[in-house]
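$ ./design --mode recover --in tokens.txt
reading tokens...
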């Protein structure tokens, strides 16, 4: 799950972004300029369900002055499964960040067997006696 938070600057129609799955080189999600962000100084948040992969997030400003700080105090934050993976706002025409992995999700190594063997119990000696009065053949 990826969450994109955008606080727009004074010219929100200039802001766009693209999320590319680098494992498949396919665009996973995107927002074009002058489509979604219309209000100045407004916080927008969108969450997307995406498969596990390596991604490149690229945010762009069509005027080339970023989203902070020449014309408003805008910023962006990008979260993968609730963890911050990229943030910013001071850039020119665009800025990008890559995160995730194309390989299988790593698993923990299994715990190894104990290297110390437990001692074997000492055999118990049994003493048997024969009672001849029982007359057992």
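writing sequence...
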């Amino acid at each position: 799950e990826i969450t994109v938070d955008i606080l727009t600057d004074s010219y929100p129609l200039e802001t766009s972004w693209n999320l590319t799955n680098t494992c498949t080189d396919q665009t996973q999600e995107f927002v074009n300029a002058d489509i979604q962000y219309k209000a100045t100084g407004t916080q927008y948040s969108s969450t997307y369900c995406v498969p596990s992969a390596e991604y490149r997030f690229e945010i762009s400003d069509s005027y080339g002055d970023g989203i902070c700080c020449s014309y408003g105090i805008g910023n962006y934050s990008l979260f993968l499964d609730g963890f911050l993976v990229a943030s910013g706002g001071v850039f020119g025409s665009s800025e990008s960040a890559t995160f995730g992995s194309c390989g299988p999700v790593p698993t923990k190594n299994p715990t190894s067997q104990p290297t110390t063997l437990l001692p074997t119990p000492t055999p118990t000696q049994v003493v048997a006696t024969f009672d001849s009065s029982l007359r057992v053949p």
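exit 0
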